[in-house]
Specification:
single chain; alpha/beta; Rossmann fold; two-stranded antiparallel ribbon
């Protein structure tokens, strides 16, 4: 089953297998829009999920190739979303890139070393840094 393309005619679906689905779990809708702009030239479809609960529901609906995950969200902390995602056999192998304002050495080391995320990017960041991380995660 293909995913609808933004701006496509009603009922038209996208069937190109090269295009990867990225689920962006973030509580800031403006930041999601910015991420979409940053990734506009890439072979990806960015699916927004505003908040942790919406992110977990969207995992079921879209089975993404990659998850971009914020940590500080009011409804469900990002680490709880990550824990639930990795506890589910259907989603455990999906790469996760944390994109967060939590920039301490401890936070980064926890994410990469203890939790085992695929990358840990702190806001603000250069768009090229995000694109490089996504390409690397999708290549593995």
């Amino acid at each position: 089953m293909g995913l609808p393309i933004e701006g496509a005619r009603e009922g038209q679906e996208y069937m190109d297998q090269k295009r990867k689905v990225i689920l962006c779990i973030e509580d800031d809708e403006d930041f999601i829009d910015l991420l979409k702009l940053m990734l506009a030239g890439e072979e990806v479809e960015v699916i927004p999920a505003v908040g942790g609960q919406a992110g977990l529901r969207s995992l079921e609906e879209y089975s993404p190739d990659l998850v971009l995950l914020d940590l500080m969200m009011p409804d469900l902390h990002g680490w709880e979303v990550f824990r639930k995602l990795k506890a589910d056999d259907r989603f455990r192998d999906i790469p996760v890139i944390v994109v967060t304002a939590l920039a301490t050495h401890y936070d980064r080391n926890f994410g990469l070393g203890v939790a085992g995320v695929d990358d840990y990017i702190t806001k603000p960041f250069m768009p090229s840094r995000l694109r490089q991380s996504i390409q690397q995660a999708l290549a593995n």
